[in-house]
Amino acid sequence: xxxxxxxxxxxxxxxxxxxxxLAQKSKNGAPPGLNxxxxxxxxxxxxxxxxxxxxxxxxxxxxxxxxxxxxxxxALIQEKGGRxxxxxxxxxxxxxxxxxxxxxxxxxxxxxxxxVHVRSASRVGHSDMGANRKRIEALRAAL
Length: 143
What we know:
The protein is α+β, with helices and mostly antiparallel strands. Helix content is 31%, strand content 23%.
């Protein structure tokens, strides 16, 4: 019985250390930015990303923001706990960190002719349990 308890404890410790290592890994890097076509980078196949760019698969698709949101976004990002790391006439790159482990998500905005395209993606891992979609919808509601 004592051996089983030690094995369970070792497994739990290994899982926790794995999450800590993954969180640390997510802190390296920056938002991908615009690709050569001048649009936001497409989402990977993993479910931890949403994008409003044309051609995003339905599972990743989210509606763009209204163009009127553009000037409000930098302050709103900070208000919601994010940090703007890139700011240009047509692009805003920001990062958000999860409260508990500090996992980093990249949140990007591209100013289009009639709307603001968005992309929100986790840097590491596979699933985000809907966190990126919820973040964009919270920003939309705050506008």
